[in-house]
Each structure stands twice: as C-alpha cells, then as structure tokens.
Write a structure and sequence with these properties.
The chain contains eleven helices and 17 strands. It is of the alpha+beta class. It is globular and about 75 Å long.
Length: about 400
Amino acid sequence: MKAFNIIGKDIPRTDGKAKATGQAVYADDIKLPGMLHGKLLRSPLAHARIVNIDTSKAAALPGVRLVITGADLPKVTTGNWRLFPKTQDEYALAIDKVRYIGDEVAAVAAMDPDIAEAAIELIEVEYEELPGVYDIESALKADAPLLHDGYKTNISIDRKIEYGDLDKAFAESDYVREDTFTVQAQSHAYMEPCSCVSQADQEGRITIWTSTQTPYIVQCLLASALNLRENDVRVIKPTVGGGFGGKMELRSWEVCSAFMAQKTGRPVKFTLSREEELMAGRRRHPMTIRSKIGFKKDGTIMAKDLHIYLDGGAYNAMGPTACFLAGNFGAMLYRYPNYRYLGEHVYTNKPPASAMRGFGAPQTLFAAETQMNMAAEDLGIDPIDLRLKKRPGDR
C-alpha cells in the first residue's frame, strides 16, 4: 500500500492551541490607547423618508467625541465588490431613505460603550413612513412601492442562460412536470459578531483591524469610500470567528470607524451585538424557484426551464452574483441538453441578502433534487437509478 503523508494521518490544526487556550486575538480583543467606542443608530421603520436628523443632544452628552450621519460621509456607494458599479446602491449611512428595520442612520463615537449607547438614544430622527413590500409577490405587483429611485420595478437586475431548443425537447418528452419551490432566509450565525478597530495617522492614512474574509476587498473599497489611495489603507485580519460568506464585503461600521478615527485622531472600535447580527445582518437569499423538466420514459432528461426570483432585501449587496450562480448551479449534476434560466433579483423592505456558503447552490439544488425524486416516483424508476442513468461519454 502506498504510504501517504497526510491521508490517514493525525494532522493537528495549526491554530488549534491558540484558540483552545484563549491566546487567539479577535478584533474585539484589540484595545488601543485612547480608543473610542462606536455605536450605530438603526431605523425602527422598514421604509421611510428621512425628513430631519437632530444630533445636538447626543453630541452634547459628556464623553461623546463625535456624531455623524450620512450627510457627513463622502457620497460613495460601497459594500459590493464583484459587480459592476451600476449595481452598487448602498451608502454606509442612509442618505434619503431607510429601507429596512435596522438600516444604519447615524453613528456615535464615545469614551465607553455605555455612553455611546446613551448617545444613540438621544438622536432624534423625523421620518415620513412609506408603504413597504415584504415578499417577492407583493414587490412584483404593478402598483408596488419602489424601494429605489431610477427603477421602473423592484427587480434590480436579471441574469439569463439559454442553450438548445427547449420547445422541441419538451414536445419530444414523454413526461413533463412543473413545480414551484420556496426557500427561506438563513442567518450565518457565526460565533464572532462583526467587529473592527480603526486608527488614523497624522496624514489621515488608515490602519483597520477587522473581522473579515476579504482584507484586500476591504482595503480597495474603504479607500474608495474615504477618497484615499489604496496604499493609504492597511487592513489587518486578526483571528476570525467564522464568516461563511457573511464577512465578504465592506460594511457600514468599517467606514464609520475609519472616518471617525480620521476626524477624532483617536482609534475607534465598533462591535456588533448578536441582536444586531440577527436583526440586520446579511443572510442567505430566500427564493421562489419555478422548475419545468422533461423526461423520456426511461428517465433520460430532455430539457429544463428554470425561473428563480431571489428576495434580495433592501440592497443588492452580492445578490447579483448569487443571481448568476443560481443559474449555473441549476444546470449542474445532470446532463441537461436543453436548458434555460432566468434569474430576477427583487428588492424588498428586509435586510439585504448576500453571500452565504454555497452562494445559490443550496437553494437551487434542493429544488432540483426534490424534483428528481418526484419525477422518479411518477416514472416508476428508483431515484438512485434515475440519478445514475448515463449517456455515452458521461463520466
């Protein structure tokens, strides 16, 4: 038998000892001299126009060093990095409207977390509440309120894939079935809530320690958000307590932390609570999946027509990528000689959905595998045999 160096061997984790003994340093463990603590004010409404924000009482609270709103930050969209600029639709702090409960409206930096929390309570926001849409069906109605200006509907983007002759293939199929599947949102529930600490030097250059999966992306986008050169932003990734796709974007607290560090000349830390993560954090996309598939009597697949609506929540985030990938995953595992996919990313007044482990695959393949089982039963073929059926050249 061939001797292996790794297979069958007990290979210790290189980070195991540090984590087990508490020596691993996470972003929230970092404490710098003179450090301020940041808190975010979040919207209590799902959809509303911001009429006025009064931060005077919060700014006057002893121990508060800075209060900012969207009006104070450079007007640069952020949060989204694999996509074309036109899909970027989110600011670090809301400018004109809030679009989900938990949308970030203002930020405070204070001497300690309790003072920051007290200051947040003193910020007065006047809202003009607007009607909202909370599911795909209501968001697609002709008279649905629109979340974003410049769109004729709440469909933010679509993605298409098509090859073969579907009409001919379905006409030649002995058995055709159509099904609709729905899947719900999921939270990443990583053990470590998001946290970051920013420090600025006298020239305004930033060093940020942040719980992220993508330090280079944070560097690029944070530089853009603050009108800095990329070389003026240094990102340090400490030990990360889980991410699963949920820590792959530049987020509002990172922008606020860096900006407030520049303005105060002191390090600024933001650490989210578990409540904030569950209420307003990114999540896996809910989807409505309509799948039509045709077979020959012997189980040979003839064609598949897939239409997916992705509930993207209030902003695109990395949803356009998920929209594209769902169509790719929909054509995987089995040979589909004729295939068509339409994916539509839909705005709703809920927290944004974005990247999560598998990124479109769990939802799409749940529908595909369930439909294969249903087809096998109707065709009188064992589900395993149906899956193992091959054509010449298949491996």
